[in-house]
């Protein structure tokens, strides 16, 4: 081993906080790596290995080279897939073809939003467009489709396929069908045209839904103008300011930010029409029916039954929550006590704070980023025999100096994959917490080795200071655990095909592993292993954790009902067309499924950006939470660190990615097949108070 890498390794950990060194607190290597200040690398003598270790990506121009290589390989695999005898080799060719394109497109998809250098972002954007065009052509390639169809329609050949191979073949065929491959030439051209039009409409709506609204300064009270961005004689309102204690400020922001934009309204109406036309063209009753094929819910009728039953079972609790909010508003503002939509987030927060002392600044000193990463490492070690190991990246491998690289290593299986942690706030970086698959796992017959998965976790945490490491609020800590749930889904899966690797599964199942991690994040038996004061080493008191958990139940029914309203709206928009506007539909659904009044001249649906990525699937958050709740209460609540249960969870739910029907995975874990009533009861029971917390509070 040469001297220089060792030198860099020592320098990397030299800047641990003086507080940490002086006091009793000590960290494991992974905790130390995240509680150390990032140092600018000295790469003078190291060869640039390229982004994510891809040699071509040592410069922006490399994206074009990587794209051309992928497209050449695509041509070879296309010929092979169309000429080989029907069988497992056909599916293997399809998966290799998909993998070659995804490895370039998925990486570019991340770089175009995350890289600080505009040249890299632009090059990645061009790659996304180029690969996307090729994928559209492949999805309408009749010869390619025939090779797959010959496999599936031949009963003798299909019978010889193992279950995973047959499912992946059916999933590829579904991709062909929704592109209109089975239609005659004229109708197929119509389907392709609708696809192209929808790409443009989706992009237009997604961008425009986040654009601020402008209004003349003279139109709002002068004392409120300081809260908004100024633009000459106008102010820009780019959000709801939902947490502001000023009633008038919340109202002004709500009315102006949600004021209808005629062009955006036309875009949404056209988008929904095109989705319906395309779904009908390829043989579905509605876009909702097309989108829900292969999910746990299976169809829109099941989703609506779930949402309606949940509404009924929550109705009394929701009414009580709204009454509590009215009383609180009357107490805070006797002259204007009517409860309005802009009051809900603020007043529910006030009620939580009044009932439980959950000021985030009281918790943050116990939740340094390093401590939380150490906690995750301990949890994964005990549940799965997996360790997170901080790894020294190569020169040019990262897109920012503050990104950390983790190797995920199993005690007997060895290296499982890599997680790149892009955790800190950066200019021009999206302000959202999310998980990106950069490379999917698959068994490579050509090398007789497993292709290791690579993912990125993106957060937007504050940078460490000279006197303290990055300190997380409880919400930030839960988000970290949530996103790490997605990452471990990718790492612990060992699917034969990358088309179904990790989180490439039904949307209403994909959130189960991440939401389940939120339960671990709020269980004191887990938290007590890592949450300690970064200066003194004192553990986070159990009573504080209990109060935090109970506080979430305050106004929980009303919060859930708001999510139900959004999910219902999404379903209605993606059902059969109605002879009325999206605003008229919203008004009716808001009255029926939410309860707070619709405000004239507002159009909340124009800010509902989830309609793009989660069209007809917004219910997934609620259904995934119901499943996660059942898994937690049946399998982990007695002992959240039980290795046998962790292994069973990996074996039944995490290992398969999307290679198995989602409900079969749930059934395997729970040893029973839950129905709609079970989902609803799981969510309702979450709101029941824990009387032990009240006893704990009274004793302390």
TrEMBL record:
Q: What's one Pfam family the UniProt record gives for this protein?
A: Peptidase_M3
InterPro entries for the chain: M3A_MIP (IPR033851), MetalloPept_cat_dom_sf (IPR024079), Neurolysin/TOP_dom2 (IPR024077), Pept_M3A_M3B (IPR045090), Pept_M3A_M3B_dom (IPR001567)
Give the cofactor note: Binds 1 zinc ion.
Q: Which residues form a coiled coil?
A: none
Q: Which domain of life is it from?
A: Eukaryota
* Cofactor annotation: Zn(2+)
Location within or outside the cell = Mitochondrion
Q: Where is the Peptidase M3A/M3B catalytic domain?
A: 241-683
Its main subcellular localisation, reduced to a broad class, is mitochondrion
Keywords for the protein's UniProt record, in alphabetical order? Hydrolase, Metal-binding, Metalloprotease, Mitochondrion, Protease, Transit peptide, Zinc
Would I find Transit peptide among this entry's keywords? yes
User: Is NAD there in the keyword field?
Assistant: no
Family assignment? Belongs to the peptidase M3 family.
This one is known as Peptidase M3A/M3B catalytic domain-containing protein
């Amino acid at each position: 081993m040469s001297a220089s890498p060792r030198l860099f390794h020592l320098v990397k950990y030299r800047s641990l906080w003086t507080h940490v060194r002086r006091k009793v607190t000590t960290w494991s290597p992974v905790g130390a790596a995240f509680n150390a200040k990032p140092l600018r690398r000295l790469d003078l003598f190291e060869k640039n290995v390229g982004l994510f270790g891809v040699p071509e990506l040592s410069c922006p121009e490399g994206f074009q080279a990587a794209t051309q290589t992928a497209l050449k390989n695509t041509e070879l695999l296309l010929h092979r897939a169309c000429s080989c005898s029907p069988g497992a080799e056909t599916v293997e060719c399809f998966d290799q073809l998909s993998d070659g394109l995804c490895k370039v497109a998925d990486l570019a998809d991340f770089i175009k939003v995350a890289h600080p250098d505009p040249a890299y972002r632009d090059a990645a954007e061009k790659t996304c467009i180029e690969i996307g065009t090729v994928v559209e052509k492949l999805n309408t390639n009749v010869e390619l489709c025939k090779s797959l169809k010959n496999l599936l329609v031949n009963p003798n050949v299909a019978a010889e396929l193992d279950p995973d191979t047959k499912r992946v073949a059916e999933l590829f065929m579904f991709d062909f069908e929704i592109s209109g491959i089975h239609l005659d030439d004229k109708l197929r051209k119509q389907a392709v045209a609708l696809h192209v039009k929808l790409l443009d409409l989706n992009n237009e709506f997604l961008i425009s839904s986040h654009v601020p609204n402008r209004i003349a300064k003279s139109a709002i009270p002068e004392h409120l103008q300081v809260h908004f961005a100024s633009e000459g004689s106008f102010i820009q309102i780019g959000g709801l300011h939902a947490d502001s204690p000023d009633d008038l400020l919340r109202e002004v922001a709500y009315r102006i930010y949600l004021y209808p934009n005629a062009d955006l309204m036309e875009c949404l109406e056209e988008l929904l029409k095109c989705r319906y036309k395309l779904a009908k063209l390829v043989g579905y009753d509605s876009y909702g029916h097309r989108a829900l094929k292969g999910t746990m819910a299976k169809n829109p009728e099941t989703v609506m039954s779930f949402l309606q039953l949940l509404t009924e079972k929550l109705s009394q609790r929701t009414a009580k929550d709204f009454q509590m909010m009215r009383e609180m508003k009357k107490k805070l503002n006797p002259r204007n006590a009517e409860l309005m939509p802009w009051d809900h987030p603020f007043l529910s927060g006030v009620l939580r704070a009044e009932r439980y002392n959950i000021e985030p600044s009281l918790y943050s000193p116990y939740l340094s980023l390093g401590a939380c990463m150490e906690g995750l490492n301990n949890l994964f070690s005990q549940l799965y025999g997996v360790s997170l190991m901080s790894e020294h990246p190569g020169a040019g491998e990262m897109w920012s100096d503050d990104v950390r690289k983790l190797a995920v290593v199993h005690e007997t299986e060895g290296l499982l994959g890599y997680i790149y942690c892009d955790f800190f706030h950066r200019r021009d970086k999206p302000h959202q917490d999310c998980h990106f698959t950069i490379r999917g796992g698959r068994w490579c017959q050509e090398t007789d080795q497993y292709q290791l998965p690579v993912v990125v976790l993106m957060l937007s945490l504050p940078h460490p200071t000279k006197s303290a490491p990055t300190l997380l609020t409880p919400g930030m800590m839960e988000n970290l655990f949530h996103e790490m749930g997605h990452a471990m889904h990718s790492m612990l899966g060992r699917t034969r095909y990358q088309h179904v690797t990790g989180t490439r599964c039904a949307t209403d199942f994909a959130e189960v592993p991440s939401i389940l991690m939120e339960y671990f994040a709020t269980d004191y038996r887990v938290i007590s292993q890592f949450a300690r004061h970064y200066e003194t080493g004192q553990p986070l008191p159990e009573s504080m954790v209990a109060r935090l958990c109970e506080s979430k139940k305050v106004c929980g029914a009303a919060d859930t009902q708001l999510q139900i309203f959004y999910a219902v709206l999404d379903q209605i928009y993606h059902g059969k067309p109605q002879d009325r506007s999206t605003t008229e539909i919203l008004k009716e659904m808001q009255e029926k499924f939410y309860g707070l009044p619709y405000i004239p001249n507002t159009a909340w649906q124009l800010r509902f950006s989830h309609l793009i990525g989660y069209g007809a699937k917004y219910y997934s958050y609620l259904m995934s939470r119901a499943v996660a709740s059942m898994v937690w209460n049946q399998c982990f609540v007695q002992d959240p660190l039980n290795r046998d249960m962790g292994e069973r969870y990996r074996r039944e739910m995490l290992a398969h990615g999307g290679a198995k029907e989602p409900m079969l995975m749930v059934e395997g874990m729970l040893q029973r097949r839950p129905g709609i009533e079970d989902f609803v009861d799981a969510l309702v029971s979450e709101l029941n108070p824990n009387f032990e917390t009240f006893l704990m509070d009274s004793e302390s």
